[in-house]
Amino acid sequence: MIRVELPPALRALAGLEREVRLDLPAPVTARAILDALEARHPVLRGAIRDFGTERRRPLVRFYACRRDLSHEPLDAPLPDAVARGEEPFLVIGAIAGG
Amino acid sequence: MTMSGIRVLVGTRKGAFILSADGKRDRWTVNGPFFGGWEIYHLKGSPADPDRIYASQSSGWFGQQVQRSSDGGKTWEPVGKEFTYDGVPGTHQWYDGTPHPWEFKRVWHFEPSLDDPDHVYAGVEDAAIFETRDGGGTWAELSGLRGHGTGPQWTPGAGGMCLHTIVIDPKNPNRLYVAISAAGAFRSDDRGRTWKTITKGLNSKYIPDPTAEVGHCVHRIALNDQRPGVLFMQKHWDVMRSDDAGDHWREISGDLPTDFGFAIDVHAHEPETVYVVPITSDQEHFPPEGKLRVYRSRKGGNEWEPLTKGLPQKDCYVNVLRDAMAVDRMDPCGVYFGTTGGQVYASANAGDSWAPIVRDLPAVLSVEVQTLP
Q1: Which of A52, A55, B172, B187 pairs with B200 at a CA distance of 20 to 30 A?
Q2: Extents of the domains making up chain B
Q3: pTM for this structure?
């Protein structure tokens, strides 16, 4: 079971608890997680990645296993610990402002 | 007509608030924040069904959401938020003079139609007008505006290239007015399919040709329902008036202490009574001398009187943004405005005296008023 943590603003928007759990086949990728997340919660469409281009929004980051995966291809396999559900896939609102 | 109450819809940098009072307008209930932490550029209710309200919810992090209420703001549901430009978006002019592709950033303004709660216009950045006919489920661009021959010359102002003002002629729903920073003002006489510039008479020293067809930084346009062909405009500098639906404009700044400002509105029952909030300059976005003064003209411009009773007259350095002033339809007419300092002021006597409804909201971006039946 894949574990996904969303920032508070998106959890409130989608009416979610702290962590989302998704059942996904291997290989687990960021794209697979986002597709499943948006299918289950359409209000999140466009909030993490742009409509159409599917590019990550500039001030959203993807972290897992203490690594910044934001610049990895969306189709790259995520770390095994994420695929096994040992570590969450973190969607982060980037630090911005003073 | 008996009217039961007032609802003031307030959009702020960090959420929406709804302020309610009965017809006396002296005791207020504050509800909110709704959508706390998100920028609420604008909320507006449908003239056809006051319980139908649309809210623009946006964030630099997480983009655009559109929220809809069907019970006067008690509960909300997210609706369609996909604003896709029609066809190949093309380019407008960037700050450095290079062509720059149109990119959707946010909704600045919703204008529900006069007769159908499901029909709403949306003004967006980068400048375009969209409409929904299914209550916000889907949005389609009225691309005749962006396709206007001048489109490639439009340039963003400091606040972005935003379509921030949409006015529907209350006696002729085929006629729409929009204003864009920093392109100017436009009119459609066919419900938004085709558009013409309405900038004759505008004179803007900050553009290379001060009387050019486009490039004017129009801040807001307002009209009185009883006389919709008469328009009042607060421009970047200059307060302007047109008596022919925008075909020609003349300056009415008259004896104002400064003719820079953002907000402008017209008394609900007196078509020659106009309100502005003078702001020192384009760099100094605060009232002259630290005195927050609404100025009222009862003669359609040129002669203005300061309205100060109940407003801070020293050490006040807030701004009043373009969509942050509105009037109700009570008699006497109520006037409302919000500040970047988080105050929302109300006058229940057409501006003669003021009192804050709330003092400590996040910076106010927009104020709209519903007069409830």
Answers
A1: B172
A2: 40-325
A3: 0.96
- Tell me the C-alpha distance between B115 and B364, whole Å: 29
CA distance B202 to A53: 40
Which helix (H) or strand (E) segment holds residue A13: the answer is helix A8-14
Q: Does B88 touch chain A (CB under 8 A)?
A: no
Tell me the pLDDT tens digit for each residue of A72-88. 999 999 999 999 999 99
By the CB < 8 Å criterion, does B282 face chain A?
no
Chain B closest CA to A60's CA: distance in Å?
Answer: 6
pLDDT tens digits, chain B, 373 residues: what are they?
445 899 999 999 999 999 999 989 999 999 999 999 999 999 999 999 999 999 999 999 999 999 999 999 999 999 999 999 999 888 888 888 888 999 999 999 999 999 999 999 999 999 999 999 999 999 999 999 998 888 888 988 888 899 999 999 999 999 999 999 989 999 999 999 999 999 999 999 988 899 999 999 999 999 999 999 999 999 999 999 999 999 999 999 999 999 999 999 999 999 999 999 999 999 999 999 999 999 999 999 999 999 999 999 999 999 999 999 999 999 999 999 999 999 999 999 999 999 999 999 999 999 999 999 8
CB of B82 less than 8 A from some CB of A: yes
> Quick check: B38 contacting A, CB < 8 Å?
yes
CATH 3.30.365.10 for domain B40-325, yes or no, is no
Q: Are B62 and A60 inside 8 Å of each other by CB?
A: yes
Closest CA to B16 of B37, B2, B33: B33
Arithmetic mean of pLDDT over chain A: 94
Q: Pick from B37, B61, B64: which is nearest to A60 by CB?
A: B61
Please tell me the distance in Å from A51's CA to the nearest CA on chain B: 7
> Which chain A residue is nearest to residue B14, measuring alpha carbons?
A9
Angle at B204 between CA B203 and CA B207, to 5 degrees: 130
Strand-pair partners of B58: B39, B64
CATH class (in words) of the domain with range A2-93: alpha beta
Cβ neighbours of residue B286 closer than 8 Å, sequence gap 6 or more: B279, B280, B316, B317, B318, B319
**Assembly ipTM:** 0.93
**Closest CA in chain B for residue A12:** B35
Nearest to B254 by CA among B301, B308, B289, B295: B301
Measured between beta carbons, the chain A residues lying within 8 angstroms of B38 are: 9
